[in-house]
Write a structure and sequence with these properties.
Layout (H helix, E strand, L loop, with lengths): L1 E2 L13 H10 L6 E5 L23 E9 L5 E9 L7 E7 L9 H11 L3 E5 L17 H15 L5 E11 L1 H12 L5 E5 L4 H7 L7 H21 L1 E6 L11 H10 L12 E3 L3 H5 L15 E6 L5 H10 L4 E6 L6 H4 L6 H11 L2
Parallel strand pairs: 1-12, 5-6, 5-7, 7-8, 8-11, 11-12
Antiparallel strand pairs: 2-9, 3-4, 4-6, 9-10
Helix pairs in contact: 1-5, 3-4
């Protein structure tokens, strides 16, 4: 390992503060319910004007919105970024997946645009049921669909005359990194993968940041979700749950404050990033596993990027430990989890560029 190169639902009271925080963030603790119809003086990336991203538009990249469908028939909307000096030669391409609850106009778009400035054809998509993409009811979270979206994005990139089909990689950020790992395990067209601030969404729901799951807490959460399904049936609506509150309480812990500072302030807030999830998604998510069998990605290379002070380090460290060679764990000094969403003075774009240039040659 090399540093820098390398109503409400009842709370679960039997778990410690750090685990309760993670369970709240991932939908198994206290949360506000809504309904969906069945029918540091840091260098931050911020956008202005008609550009609908939360980061500035580059003058070195051509951008356009594109639409394609995944294997499940869900309409996906994505932002395609092309180097302005692309010419006629085929290039390496990257699919960039956004964090759980985010949208393509936030950190995924920033990564996609920046990597396009560095010569790659890039695509940042809204996951199924999120942002501008389709799927009903909106805000449902389906591990199968989230994983399939990466393969569908590769399908689309492979139709472009600028793209070499044999030189396609993936960058997955936060929860998007977990879905990307699963996609890489089953889709060998992904020739190289990098995760940034990795979150295994299923594991985080089962056990927060603890080494072992709390079986009793899981059983209670699944029972609550099952009861909510009956309520959905009776009302003809689907209950949703907010991971991040609209306002921050005085006693909010550092992890919640970190996410709030990005998603609920002008720093990263976007009108389509609601950070909502349908309660009936919990069962499928609880049983999803991103890190399990990650060694199956080999011999394709994997890069795990994490912040030195990130609360989520356990996920990158576990994935790196389980992955087979070639692999690398790259630690960004002084960076927390969300710092790597948009703090351009901390995001190791040079490392990402060298990794993909070297492995998509």
């Amino acid at each position: 390992m090399r540093d820098h190169d390398t109503k409400t639902v009842a709370p679960i009271d039997s778990i410690d503060t750090s685990r309760r925080t993670l369970l709240k963030l991932t939908g198994a603790g206290v949360a506000t319910l809504g309904m969906a119809s069945l029918a540091a003086t840091p260098a931050l990336a911020q956008g202005t004007g008609d550009w609908d991203k939360v980061f500035p538009k580059s003058t070195r990249v051509d951008h356009r919105k594109v639409v394609f469908y995944n294997r499940l028939g869900i309409r996906l909307v994505a932002d395609l970024y092309l180097p302005r000096d692309a010419g006629s030669a085929k290039r390496s391409a990257l699919v960039v997946g956004h964090p759980f609850g985010g949208v393509k106009e936030q950190t995924a778009g920033l990564y996609a645009q920046t990597m396009a400035e560095r010569g790659f054809v890039t695509l940042a998509h809204d996951a199924s049921y999120q942002g501008e993409s389709g799927g009903s009811p909106h805000f449902l979270s389906s591990p199968e669909a989230n994983v399939e979206d990466y393969s569908a994005a590769i399908d689309y990139l492979g139709t472009l005359p600028q793209v070499d089909r044999n030189r396609i990689g993936v960058i997955g950020i936060c929860g998007g990194g977990g879905w990307a790992l699963i996609a890489a395990k089953i889709d060998p067209r992904i020739r190289a993968i990098a995760t940034v601030s990795l979150y295994d969404i299923g594991q985080s729901r089962r056990q927060g940041l603890s080494a072992e799951p709390d079986r009793a807490a899981i059983a209670r959460a699944l029972r609550e979700a099952a009861d909510q399904r009956w309520a959905d049936v009776d009302r003809g609506t689907v209950a949703t749950r907010a991971d991040i509150p609209e306002t921050l309480s005085a006693d909010a812990d550092p992890v919640m404050r970190e996410f709030f500072d990005y998603y609920r302030t002008p720093r990263g807030q976007h009108p389509r990033a609601k950070n909502l999830m349908t309660v009936n998604s919990l069962g499928a998510i609880f049983h999803s596993e991103a890190i399990s069998s990650v060694e199956g990605i080999s011999p394709r290379p994997a890069l795990f990027v994490m912040g030195e002070t990130a609360h989520s380090r356990i996920f990158s460290e576990q994935a790196f430990a389980k992955a087979a060679e070639p692999k690398e764990l790259y630690i960004v000094p002084g960076a927390g989890h969300v710092d790597l969403y948009d703090k351009i003075n901390l995001i190791p774009f040079e490392k990402l560029e060298s990794f993909f240039v070297g492995n998509l040659a």
